[in-house]
Amino acid sequence: MNHYPARKFCLKCLVTIVLIALFIVASFAYLSLNPLALFTQQAMNDVAVYTARFFPPDLSPPFLQKVWSGVLQTLAISALATLLAAIVSLFLVLPAAGQFGHSAKMVTRFFLNFLRSVPELVWAVLMVLAVGLGPFAGTLALTLHTTGVLGRLFGETLENHPPAATQALRLAGASNTQSFIYGALPGIYSQLLSYSLYRWEMNIRMATILGFVGAGGLGQILYYELSLLHEQQASTVIIAMLILVIGVDMISNKLRRVQMHSLG
């Protein structure tokens, strides 16, 4: 008969749970929110009435053509931003990994942390003010934020890669760049590609939101229709967003599976 040791009482766990509960209650109190108000008869009726205004969706050919144009624009914004960010990150991977010295590593890491610490919506507002409304602003905003994310991930990937191949090339007289291209990149490119595909999935979602600040794509169409209280047209845009995100997730997962299978 197996005897398992008795579990000890976790005082730290209990204190953590109590603190989290107190913090949640305090947050509701500070914001003067009453969650029970969401479940009153009046609130439920209001939600039902408002939801009914979104049906049936507008499936007229002219509006579907408009939505299709927004889908293509959203795909283009996300794909171009991810591609540009991946290219810039490849140029920053060596200093980010400390290949050019500690000072260069600290400066590059600070720059990348700054880029990714600013949310995409904030970058979008700044880019709209800088270059005007439209997809160009959305592309720039996503490129800046994604560069911060991918640059950090690429740098950490290179740091964790076994240095034997690159060191051998350096001993043979190769530069840091040549050692990276011929020694490290063949061993880490699959991981870099996986990171890029994952960020593309996230950028699809963000590209649909950036339109709310005038950065193009489906989000701009959705904001326009909601501002005019065109709920049926807004419902069509929301459905298009859902189909787009699901489709991109399936494609990205398929590409990653094919990549892993080819490596195996």
TrEMBL record:
The lineage of its organism: Bacteria, Pseudomonadati, Pseudomonadota, Betaproteobacteria, Burkholderiales. This is Phosphonate transport system permease protein. It is a multi-pass membrane protein. It is found in: Cell membrane. Keywords: Cell membrane, Membrane, Transmembrane, Transmembrane helix, Transport. Residues 71-252 form the ABC transmembrane type-1 domain. PROSITE patterns: ABC_TM1. GO terms for cellular component: plasma membrane. It comes from the Bacteria. The chain crosses the membrane at residues 9-31, 75-100, 121-144, 179-198, 207-226, 232-251. Pfam families: BPD_transp_1 (PF00528). GO terms for molecular function: ABC-type phosphonate transporter activity. Its main location: membrane. CDD domains: TM_PBP2. NCBIfam families: PhnE (TIGR01097). Belongs to the binding-protein-dependent transport system permease family.
